[in-house]
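Hi L.,

You mentioned the student needs an example of a multi-chain input paired with its predicted structure. This one should do, with 471 residues in total across all chains.
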Amino acid sequence: MKTENLTREALKKYAAENREAFEALLKDFVEIPSISVDPTKKDAIRENAKLAADVIRRFGGEASILETDGHPIISGTWTKNPDWPTVTVYNHLDVQPASMETEPWATEPFTFTKQGDRYFGRGTTDDKGPALTALYGIKAALEADLPVNLRVLWEFEEEIGSPSFEKAIAAHAAELATDSVLVSDTIWIARGKPACPAGLRGLQGFLFTLETGETDQHSGVCGGAARNPMAELMKLVNECFDATTGRVKIPGFYDDVVPPTKKELEDFKRSGFTVAGFKKDHLFKSLRTSDPLDLMKRIWAQPTFEIHGMTGGYTGPGVKTVIPPRGEVKVSCRLVPNQTGEKIAKLVTKFVKSKNKDVVVHVKNRLDPYQGKTEGPLAEAVKRAMQFAFKREPVFVREGGSIGAVVTMENVLKCPVIFLGLSLPSTATTPRTRTSTGSRPPAAWRPSRATSARSPRSASPRRSRRPERGR
Ligand SMILES: [Zn+2]
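Structure written out for the whole complex:
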């Protein structure tokens, strides 16, 4: 297949010819439980890393396993001519834990299952399927003699916030040099409407703690005189934000927020997003808004102040009349492009101190937001590719969550990063979206009614971007 013969028909034929091999390979990958958060799965990750490197070599590339402080990173290279530009495709091969006992899986999560035109199994969509899809894309590009050098970068710590990624990438920056990075780890908003995220929210986590005594005291003996740290923390939280509307009351909090452009809002509207679908996907009973555009702005383009938990006091059955000596609130702010975690941490700390000087603010993990491109040669290339494959232009939307590796690659490799996600959203026909992770091969060799489901970035456990874990 030569470049000039790289037509949709030729690619469909290529897809059909390679489908069986693709599925066999995906099965091998999915059935290794490469759960990055589980320390007992280190050997599984090692096994998957070795398999990944072997597969790259089988596809004619050079592979290296880059050791890090945590799980390894796989680098694959197909260099044909040093004068040609280099494109790197980023994916991750680690997954979240999965269990039929605690989650509504209809099939064994670590058994690759094909049902009709759908694949089930942890990682089939997020993100082993897209990684292998890219590999077959690379094979086709090589066979067609496209004038480009290709690389893959496969991480094994994405699901735990990429704690070792930046250091490892910086150490190997010269050998990983590339002209652009394509990230294939995102999901469309609606079937039939290609969508590319052009922005990710960041995160700044906090713990607020207050201690006013040493032990529990009796409210009959001390009540009225004793300070109550739990109640004072509740008051503080209410001073920080309006829990009904979500509006943050900390001065300066919104100063750096750049509202989405008219064009972006138009794309949001055309993305296929529906409030009913969002409610169903996330099992909500009610929301802060029922207006679709307002909802999209809230989850993609506005910062938040969120309470994740409150600890302290008596939590057993019934009522025990103690006055607790201490309390803690777990808080995080989602940040949007142009905000920085550093500034938000300063604003929040200063505000809390001004309201209650005894509260200690512990600044936790930070991920800066990412502003993607919707214009320029790379965005145009993504548009052309989507148009070629799906016969319609993609919409540029945003992601509510964070992918730490994206900002790292842009900063360390000093090159533009763009998204080209191929995953389809879940539908009502699947078990709960957060656990159903069907995936499909690239459009060119996907059966006509393939569907897949996986957790939207902003809501699943894996996407909760836990501050404690670097998200
Ligand atoms: Zn992913």
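You could point out the following to them. The CA atoms of residues 83 and 148 lie 9 Å apart. The chain is about 30% helix and 20% strand.

Best wishes,
N.
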